[in-house]
Write a structure and sequence with these properties.
Helices cover 39% and strands 20% of the residues. The chain has 295 residues and is of the alpha/beta class. Helix 9 crosses helix 11. The relative contact order is 0.10.
């Protein structure tokens, strides 16, 4: 409609090509400082704060606890859209100080023996790139151990596999899970796709072996970024159960100097089992039905 507003990412040439075919709605573009646009991000700090510019004029500075270029661009787009419906940019900018990321968006699962474990739903190479790059900017020279499970339907198609090495270039070590058979089978060779990364990348078709490899490498100061992509809602339900537990419970193996990642995986498996039991006991569940029949 002519009273609406198209908020377009100036980094995406395909959007400009599409809009050039005809649009009746006013268009405003946003980008970082590298690309000309009406709205821009500038002066990104080490703490991921950034200035917001409109037609070259400073509107304010966003201070928040979020990393990654994609998140900054999303925030800028939200500021632009809010302005169109009457929210002053200054008010929108200040509100981000109270913003908290949803679960599985670089969520810190725990810190043990100075090893930090993050959980992130990075489901394609572009998201992985910005996630790892954002973490690198935050932790400086600390080692980043990227743990990748490319199990989303998009990744299983293999159309983006060639982009994986570049998306992981900021990681010091890469551990990938790609089952050769069964429900988690990729249908393409993960080891071959990661081979441009050389010795810093390893692929596994067994999760237990992957966990052991991460444990063997992890040391104080390391940042373990776990990018796990799910195929359906059940895995997200399992994750929600895990998220309800205290961090200390996740890290019950903390006495082991490298136990943080192993403990997280163990708790995830236990939570999935408990969720299954809960579903079975729920009204209409298998055991509930068995008890009803028994009466």
């Amino acid at each position: 409609p002519n009273n609406g507003l198209i908020v377009s990412n100036a980094h995406e040439a395909a959007l400009d090509e599409t809009l050039a075919k005809g649009a009746w709605t006013p268009i405003t573009r946003f980008a970082d400082a590298r690309v000309p646009a009406d709205w821009q991000i500038a002066n990104v700090g080490a703490d991921d704060s950034f200035d917001v510019l409109f037609e070259g004029q400073l509107q304010g500075r966003v201070h928040w606890d979020v990393t990654g270029e994609h998140n900054r661009l999303n925030a800028l787009a939200a500021i632009v859209a809010a302005r169109h419906v009457g929210v002053e940019p200054k008010t929108a900018i200040e509100s981000f100080a109270r913003y908290r990321m949803p679960k599985r968006r670089m969520e810190i699962k725990g810190v043990v023996n100075d090893i930090t474990v993050y959980d992130d739903f990075a489901h394609h190479p572009t998201a992985i790139t910005t996630t790892v790059a954002g973490l690198r900017k935050r932790v400086g020279s600390a080692r980043i151990l990227a743990v990748l499970e490319p199990r989303s339907n998009t990744m299983k198609l293999g159309v983006m596999k060639a982009q994986l090495p570049e998306s992981l270039r900021d990681a010091d070590l890469v551990f990938g899970y790609g089952a050769s058979e069964g429900k988690d089978a990729l249908g393409w060779d993960l080891a071959e796709s990661l081979s441009p990364l050389g010795e810093k990348a390893r692929a596994f078709d067994d999760l237990t072996e992957l966990v052991q490899a991460v444990k063997a490498q992890a040391r104080a100061g390391d940042q373990v970024a776990h990018a796990q992509q799910h195929r359906d809602g059940k895995a997200d339900d399992d994750q929600a159960v895990v998220g309800q537990r205290e961090v200390g419970e996740h890290l019950h193996a903390a006495a082991h100097p490298r136990g943080v990642f192993h403990a997280y995986v163990l708790r995830a498996k236990q939570a999935a089992h408990q969720l299954h039991q809960h579903q079975a006991d729920a009204p209409g569940g298998q055991r509930s039905e068995e008890r009803r029949v028994g009466k």
